[in-house]
Amino acid sequence: MTQQFAQEIEIKPKKKGVFETDAWKRFKQNKLAVFGAVLLSLFVFVALLAPVLAPYDPYVSQVNELGTYDVHASPSADHLLGTDSLGRDMLSRLIYGARVSLSVAFAAVLIATITGVILGIIAGYYGKWVDTAIMRLTDIVICFPVLFLAISIATILKPSIFNVMIIIGLVSWTTMTRLVRGEVLRIRETEYIEAARAMGQNNLIIMAKHILPNIMAPIVVQATLQTAEAILTESALSFLGVGVQQPVPSWGNMLNEATSILVLQFKPWIWIPAGLAILLTILCINFVGDGLRDALDPKTKKT
Amino acid sequence: MSTLLEVDGIKKWFGLEREGLFGGERQFVKAVDDISFTINKGETLGLVGESGCGKSTAGRTILRLIEATEGKVVLDGTNLYDLKAKDLKKLRKDMQIVFQDPYASLNPRMKVKDILEEPIKIHTTLTKQQREEKIKQVISDVGLNAMYLERYPHEFSGGQRQRIGIARALVVEPKLIIMDEPVSALDVSVQAQVLNLIQDIQEKYNLTYLFITHNLSVVKHISDRVAVMYLGRIVEIGDKSAFFKEPLHPYSKALISAIPETSQLNRRERVILKGDIPSPVNPPSGCRFHTRCPFAMDKCREVEPALTEIGQDHFVACHLYEVGGEVIGKI
User: Fold this and answer.
1) Distance to chain A for B278, nearest Cα, Å
2) Tell me, what CATH number does B140's domain have?
3) What's the domain range around B139?
């Protein structure tokens, strides 16, 4: 009966693009997430087009009409966000800072995600002593005070953008490892993994083809949320002077000037934009992360 | 008829965590405790028992999906338990398994085409085109339309998914398929269709089945011989017709008397068992069934009965059929 029935109906194989999937539909319904995604892409866009958009060179002190360096100038038509203590244009530095802060965050998260996913899958899949070894290592790394560790490494190595990426990457893979391990433990017991083993598939392919695609959703969400954390860590390190070094602008080291009470109280244009940029980016990333979590969860059916 | 599968004294004990800091003696769940049987080529052996008696564990242990504690499994002349991992992978072509839950046994992120192609890729050197032909042929053999190949598992009903699961086992043309409760999760109306399909492909592909189930009606329908498991042991094994006509072991009698009968004339006396299945961690001494057996004798509490041949190819492990070491035949 069912067979005949099935043969009578013409079934068109549906080719679905990214923008037609259920996940995308659910994501679209979350207004905050869409708002976050739009604003975030705007930031990324600005960061990419920094040389075109920035009105001045962020490394050059500006000279005013009196022929002196235009130090701590308040916002004006010439310098929309004013200038800093060395007379550099704040808007240009903010735009170039986006480049640095975002790329540090993305690179760090990439390192953390790759490390975390690989270790997590291995620990979860092989179990036994491999699992114990990896998870105890994770516990140890979690116990490190992140800032202290970062500061010590940054002092031993020379503080630079690349070192900041690596440092943040190396201390933040632990959450991902734990998450991935848990998910793998769940998937490993399913019958389709058993079926793959019963057909003699080798372990690497089982992990890559059968397990990884089925745990992508939580990984994507975690990586997104981790980006926010990475931006924050980078800002903190740069603020403390062990992260991205002057004269390279980053949102964190732009805040550094606010350590002076004079700047903090009377020259808010120097630190408010950078602070706001960090706040907004993190907020947007978290909105997007939450939206993704809801959208990628197959249990929430589209309405 | 030649033997395809010979299972000889396999055991699977799962170790429990030691209690306390220094523990003491380690305890084991004796899921499968010394079972032996053979299956001939082209035959279907039904393995029945209530849930928790170790039938699924037995199936998986035979395929070495979980490593056995002890024993020997010979498939077509090769001892599986002696093989190295690499050689075992090659031999997996000959033995496949169909799972109980059609919702969990297909990877939700793979198209049906990819699910079916994977085993062929592993075990053969067929070209892409040959693989596609093979897949199309198998999918129509299990009664599905080739148009379904581009779809994902969640777009199918339970019965259709089970057909896909069967097709996945079929594509490498195995000799033995272990059917692990393949119809238990399905609707009764669909059960019959899938059972018939299982019988049809057995003829077409010259398959041998180990059919694991808790449903005696299904066993009656599909198998040639029946083995009854209780608490990790086989208590009775024999030809289907003999078994259903005259079950020997008190446990088998109870099981068969529990099959609902519609006709008044065929009503049997119900043998109702007391109590629950004991824990497989500390199975009862002597005969494992003595705690629930209506005919239990003193001997049953002390001596474990061995499987002995009572009728033609009909074995039972029960003291009721022997006196002073002598088999007295049927009672």
Assistant:
1) 26
2) 3.40.50.300
3) 3-245
